[in-house]
């Protein structure tokens, strides 16, 4: 995939606000509207832009309690555990990692008691051998 400096600038603007109009993008990039539209279509066709997502406000997110849940799974249980974690809507992201844990799940809940319930539910999944959780106190950088 070839991504130019202007494409990277376009992607940076979209990461700040994916709903920014093509006209506003063009103005900020000092390009014509048709050029920006063509770049967007090309980046989508090449798979650089896979979609546009909802970004929750800091005010809303500050009301949620989030945690990293590190998970060790049994051999050959990855696909089953992944499918079961995908069904838990409070699991907002899941990463495969190396080291003593196989997966890290990011979990968000409205209260400590709800977070505790979700972590217990994850630990009870068939194929999960061990979990270790850390509550996220604050976000220092988010891009």
Automatic annotation (TrEMBL):
UniProt cross-references to InterPro entries, sorted A to Z: ArsR-like_HTH (IPR011991), AsnC-type_HTH_dom (IPR000485), Dimeric_a/b-barrel (IPR011008), Tscrpt_reg_AsnC-like (IPR019888), Tscrpt_reg_AsnC/Lrp_C (IPR019887), WH-like_DNA-bd_sf (IPR036388), WH_DNA-bd_sf (IPR036390)
Pfam families: AsnC_trans_reg, HTH_24
Keywords: DNA-binding, Transcription, Transcription regulation
Gene3D superfamilies named in the record: 3.30.70.920, Winged helix-like DNA-binding domain superfamily/Winged helix DNA-binding domain
CDD domains for this protein: HTH_ARSR
HTH asnC-type domain span: 3-65
Keyword Acetylation appears in the UniProt entry: no
PANTHER family: HTH-TYPE TRANSCRIPTIONAL REGULATOR LRPC, LEUCINE-RESPONSIVE REGULATORY PROTEIN
Official protein name in the record: Lrp/AsnC family transcriptional regulator
Organism, as annotated: Rhizobium rhizophilum
């Amino acid at each position: 995939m070839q991504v130019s400096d202007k494409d990277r600038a376009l992607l940076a603007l979209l990461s700040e606000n994916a709903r920014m109009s093509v006209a506003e993008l063009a103005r900020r990039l000092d390009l014509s509207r048709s050029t920006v539209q063509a770049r967007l279509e090309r980046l989508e066709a090449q798979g650089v832009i896979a979609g546009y997502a909802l970004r929750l406000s800091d005010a809303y997110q500050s009301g949620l309690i989030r945690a990293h849940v590190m998970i060790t799974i049994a051999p050959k249980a990855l696909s089953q555990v992944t499918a079961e974690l995908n069904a838990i809507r409070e699991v907002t992201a899941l990463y495969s990692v190396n080291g003593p844990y196989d997966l890290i799940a990011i979990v968000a809940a409205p209260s400590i008691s709800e977070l505790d319930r979700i972590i217990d539910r994850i630990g009870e999944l068939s194929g999960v051998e061990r979990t270790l959780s850390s509550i996220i106190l604050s976000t220092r950088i988010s891009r």
